[in-house]
Write a structure and sequence with these properties.
Rossmann fold; alpha/beta; single chain; elongated; 14 strands
């Protein structure tokens, strides 16, 4: 089936993670995403060579599948003209340059909206394009610290910890994709594009819904709580005989089921644990009581027992455990694709499914400049003109 964004042409002037995540999602949904990589070197993640597949960066290959790739030197007149031709016929452009960089090259929104009034221009920055921090660069670690995420992650009394995944980068990419699709819907009515922007700061702040609600209500900044929930208990990870397990007592009914399953019905009548408010107050006393019981059986045994009673439960997987799970396979979250250099390889599938349109992983990430000639030909460049641009260093042709 065709993807829901079939026929939409996206020019990606973004690199590393946030912008490429956005482009990957759009490409998975059928958009023709042309990734414009800088010269020399290409996307910075190409230099993340460990681990690699046939010398190609595994990080780059994960985030840039389904895209066609061209390599262009924007400091060369010929390269700049190539990008302008691309943008004149594009539906969307994404970029994550520092504020003012593209404006100096004559590729700012004020210029591009005149060149192509239907263009949706999406900018992903560190802190947004307005305000006193607008000129600062964006980095996931810095955004997590700024947004307070590191102050609420980890165990109480321990040093600040960042999320194990690049949560600000990835969420910024998701928000950018949502903004772009919304702008395309609006364009269907108005006939005009617009600027869409988000930032790593805002993407990280969005992840603090619960904690910000507590601050607004109490005036107190919440701290880290390990794996435990900040509003309900018991809702956290516990050690079993062989590995860790998550148990979710998110309401009173589940709490009563938990004490039944672990063989400690007396805990339900204990004044310290009689309702959620008391359990939260006395979590330090409750956690070891549950942990003592759970250490007597294996993770698999407890999962079967809790699921039989309808208690939310699941293993604390390693990445390898997760990728090998049958549910993950059946949901096509691990797929295979052919790469020009590495051959048959695995990548993550698309997390969005549609009943009437398709999503698919159609191609692996491009080699540097792999589709330069193909794209330039589609823009009307002759063979001689393409070779001249290559000699000038304005573009790179894959060899």
């Amino acid at each position: 089936m065709k993807g829901p964004l079939e026929g939409i042409k996206v020019v990606e002037l973004a690199q590393i993670m946030a912008g490429p995540t956005c482009g990957m999602l759009l490409a998975d949904m059928g958009a023709d995403v042309i990734k414009v990589e800088k010269l020399p070197g290409g996307d910075d993640t190409r230099s993340y060579t460990e681990p690699s597949l046939a010398g190609e960066s595994a990080a780059f290959m994960m985030l840039n599948r389904n895209k066609r790739g061209i390599a262009v030197n924007l400091k060369k007149p010929g390269g700049l003209e190539v990008v302008k031709r691309l943008l004149a016929g594009a539906d969307v452009v994404t970029e994550n340059y520092r504020k003012g960089t593209l404006e100096k090259l004559g590729l700012g929104y004020d210029v591009l909206e005149k060149l192509n009034p239907r263009l949706v221009y999406c900018a992903v920055s560190g802190y947004g394009r307005t305000g006193p921090y607008a000129d600062k660069g964006g980095f996931d670690l810095i955004a997590q610290g700024f947004a307070g995420i590191m102050s609420i992650t980890g165990e109480p009394g321990r040093p600040p910890v960042k999320s194990g995944t690049s949560i600000a980068d990835i969420n910024a990419g998701i928000l950018a994709a949502l903004g772009i699709v919304s702008a395309l819907v609006a364009r269907a009515t108005t006939g005009r594009g617009q600027m869409v922007e988000t930032s790593l700061m805002e993407a990280a702040i969005q992840q603090t819904y619960w904690q910000s609600a507590i601050l607004f209500a109490t005036g107190v900044s919440p701290g880290p709580s390990g794996s435990a929930h900040i509003l309900t208990a018991p809702y956290q990870a516990f050690p079993t005989k062989d590995r860790w397990i998550n148990v979710g007592g998110a309401n009173q009914a589940n709490w009563e089921r938990i004490v039944k399953v672990i063989g400690a019905p007396e805990l339900a009548a204990d004044p310290r644990f009689v309702n959620n408010g008391e359990r939260m107050k006395n979590l330090a006393a409750l956690t070891p009581l549950i942990a003592e019981r759970l250490r007597t059986r294996t993770c698999a045994e407890w999962i079967r027992a809790f699921e039989a009673e309808g208690v939310p439960v699941g293993p604390v997987n390693s990445i390898g455990d997760m990728l090998g799970d049958e549910q993950v396979r059946l949901r096509e979250m691990v797929v295979e694709v052919d790469h020009a250099r590495a051959g048959r390889m695995k990548t993550l599938g698309t997390p969005i499914k549609f009943s009437g349109t398709g999503t698919s992983v159609r191609r692996a990430a491009p080699l540097l400049g792999q589709h330069t000639r193909e794209v330039l030909e589609s823009l009307g460049y002759s063979g001689g003109e393409i070779e001249a641009l290559d000699r000038e260093g304005a573009v790179l042709l894959a060899r």
